[in-house]
């Protein structure tokens, strides 16, 4: 599997990564089987936006003893509430969601802290100037996030984020 530099992060990521939404309802052993295929094929990038606690815990168990082989994009602003996924910008929820992510992954950090689902320029401006970015930067300074990223379906918001240097 070819690996490429990820922007200016210093990380080398496989050209193909693994999203985790399909792990919902899967046991740690089933998730471990997917992990085994990833290892065998040379994939090293895992995108974890899902906030489902069983999925996060299952992935954590599946990565035991192998965590250092993978680059995890763990999403900030994705939380589990009342039995379902919720996108949030509330600082307390963002913080609690990230703490839950690390605890369930059994990991002290993630390589990429993705600010989740920024799909408008107004949303980007709120994130960039507000407590979400301040939190992400503090976690990066503390070594719990290696690089800050952003997920978006809006080219205008994504370009603004790139051009901001944040």
Provide the fold topology:
Blueprint: E1 3-5, E2 12-14, E3 18-19, H1 28-41, E4 45-48, H2 53-62, E5 71-76, E6 78-81, E7 84-87, H3 91-105, E8 110-115, H4 121-129, H5 131-141, E9 145-150, H6 155-164
Parallel strand pairs: 3-4, 4-5, 5-8, 8-9
Antiparallel strand pairs: 1-2, 6-7
Summary of the model, kept short:
The protein has 166 residues and is of the alpha/beta class. It has 6 helices and 9 strands; from the N terminus they run βββαβαβββαβααβα.
Residues in β-strands, percent: 15-25%
Q: How would the global form be characterised? A: globular
Which strand order do you get reading across the main beta sheet?
A: 3-4-5-8-9
Fraction of helical residues = 40-55%
**Structure summary, number of beta strands:** 9
Assembly state (oligomeric): single chain
Distance between the termini: 30 Å
Overall average residue pLDDT: 96
Radius of gyration computed on alpha carbons: 15 Å
SSE order: EEEHEHEEEHEHHEH
- The class by helix and strand makeup works out as alpha/beta
Count of helix runs: 6
Low-confidence stretches: none
The main β sheet shows up as: 5 strands, parallel
């Amino acid at each position: 599997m070819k690996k490429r530099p990820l922007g200016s992060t210093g990380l080398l990521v496989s050209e193909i990564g693994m999203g985790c939404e399909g792990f919902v309802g899967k046991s740690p052993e089933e998730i471990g089987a997917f992990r085994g295929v990833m290892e065998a094929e040379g994939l090293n990038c895992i995108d974890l936006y899902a906030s489902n606690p069983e999925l996060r815990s299952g992935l954590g168990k599946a990565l035991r003893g192998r965590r250092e082989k993978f680059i995890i994009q763990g999403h900030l602003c994705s939380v589990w509430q009342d039995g379902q996924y919720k996108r949030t910008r509330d600082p307390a929820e963002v913080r609690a969601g990230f703490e839950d992510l690390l605890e369930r992954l059994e990991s002290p950090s993630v390589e990429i802290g993705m600010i989740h689902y920024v799909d408008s320029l107004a949303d980007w401006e709120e994130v960039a100037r507000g407590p979400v970015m301040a939190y992400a930067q503090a976690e990066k300074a503390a070594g719990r996030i290696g690089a800050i990223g952003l997920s978006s379906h809006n080219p205008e918001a994504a370009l603004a984020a790139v051009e901001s240097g944040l």
